[in-house]
Amino acid sequence: MNQYLFVLLSFVHVLADPDFAKLDGAPPSKIAVVGAGIGGTATAHFLRQHFGPEVRIDVFERGSVGGRLATVTVNHQDYESGGSIIHSLNLHMQDFVQQLGLKYRKSVAGKTAVFNGDEFILEETDWYLLDLFRLWWRYGISFIRLQMWVEEIMEKFMRIYKYQAHGYAFSSVEELLHSLGGSGFINMTRRSLSESLLELGVSQRFIDEVIAPIMRVNYGQNISIPAFVGAVSLAGAQANLWAVEGGNKLVCSGLLKLAKANLIRSPVATITLRSTGDYQQYELTYDSQNEKSSELYDIVVVATPLQQNINSGISFQGFEPQLSEIAGSYHQTVASIIHGYLNCSYFGFPDPKLFPFSSILTTDTPGLFFNSAASVCPVNITSGFRRKQPQEAGVYKVFSPKPLEKSELKTLFKSYYSVQVTDWLAYPHYGSSQGLPPVVLHENLYFLNGMEWAGSAMEMSSVAAKNIALLAYHRWNRQLEMIDQKELMHKVKTEL
């Protein structure tokens, strides 16, 4: 009788002590994700997949859902002002689009040229073989060496999808990269792109006239960026690119709904560590209807940059030692959406009807005030849509390192109706000597944006989101055999 009484009292004690169940492997009750960009919303989606339907997931966003995926409106049409293109090998993004029932945007053909401030030095034609011949004639086999290098890196990087499909996670960006490409990938985060390409046998002329313009349009930076970042950028400059009909930001709002997450439209002010015995939770304070509110969470994922010049507004309290500020800064890139008439004479075409290019990239020439200029299509393209000809008023996206002055606008455009400026801190300011930020800030406190210091793209954020969801799940359930495993290619093959 006493034995049964002891068991009964023990059971009552378990019910009365909520921390006991959590320490004993029960799922978390509440998870917070700070930031509703592609990284944050994908994290919410993957957390829901792994932790199941019972856990409450709150997503905090002080701005618009989508973050650096955003649109602006010109003449009742929306245009991408942020992340615009997605590569065909981006398997997470493709999966999101399929799950959400979204559509691929119709592609509209257009030719690209490279401008050095005086003239076009490289021009795309309607004939692929002619373009190849011109590349060979001007640069030798540099473009073939580059293509093989990028394909080799992408082939290794694609291993991440197999690893994640089998549930493996990594506690740092370095561990993830090492599992994919060994010390070679790690070294690529520490060496400049130009140094790596020269060693590969790519000519300086090809680097200056082809690679540099691609880095300028994609990251607003030069060829001194780390080689791995450059490889990600070059993969995104190839063919087989796509976008989402209606705007890429629809993926973010769709993932929030798919995750059944609660969107809290407030900035997070503080994240405070609260300890009860051996059990730790995080108290998030935020503004709610002009009042301070707070909630306790078992797991927190910070999916917004924490570098000093971003000014996230988040302070960390109660940590010993105090969490240090994450090193580095974000690079200013200005996107101007301009409705007007392109000044084709500036580019050497007095007759706009003869101007054949829809996209203009630029070399790293002193005094050249813009990185790129392109005729852009709206996010909704009807079956009868055609791209505006240069002699017509069109909508252009111009990337520049700072807002365009009136004299610069008049240089690029004969006249214009409107200018809408988005001043982005869009990408990390890459330096080949800086390290990669941590993924784990504290027990059950994670930082998503460290991944974009290896390479910034929508898919990189999605890969980071999947990794953090798996990492949080395995650490919560003490499944350490699924974290930072070595020789994963062999393990995955033997599991099949």
UniProtKB/TrEMBL annotation:
<dbReference type="InterPro" id="IPR010795">
    <property type="entry name" value="Prenylcys_lyase"/>
</dbReference>
<dbReference type="InterPro" id="IPR036188">
    <property type="entry name" value="FAD/NAD-bd_sf"/>
</dbReference>
<dbReference type="Pfam" id="PF13450">
    <property type="entry name" value="NAD_binding_8"/>
</dbReference>
<keyword id="KW-0732">Signal</keyword>
<keyword id="KW-0274">FAD</keyword>
<keyword id="KW-0285">Flavoprotein</keyword>
<dbReference type="Pfam" id="PF07156">
    <property type="entry name" value="Prenylcys_lyase"/>
</dbReference>
<feature type="signal peptide">
    <location>
        <begin position="1"/>
        <end position="16"/>
    </location>
</feature>
<dbReference type="GO" id="GO:0030328">
    <property type="term" value="P:prenylcysteine catabolic process"/>
</dbReference>
<feature type="domain" description="Prenylcysteine lyase">
    <location>
        <begin position="122"/>
        <end position="485"/>
    </location>
</feature>
<dbReference type="GO" id="GO:0001735">
    <property type="term" value="F:prenylcysteine oxidase activity"/>
</dbReference>
<comment type="similarity">
    <text>Belongs to the prenylcysteine oxidase family.</text>
</comment>
<protein>
    <submittedName>
        <fullName>Prenylcysteine oxidase-like</fullName>
    </submittedName>
</protein>
<dbReference type="InterPro" id="IPR017046">
    <property type="entry name" value="Prenylcysteine_Oxase1"/>
</dbReference>
<keyword id="KW-0560">Oxidoreductase</keyword>
<keyword id="KW-0325">Glycoprotein</keyword>
<dbReference type="GO" id="GO:0030327">
    <property type="term" value="P:prenylated protein catabolic process"/>
</dbReference>
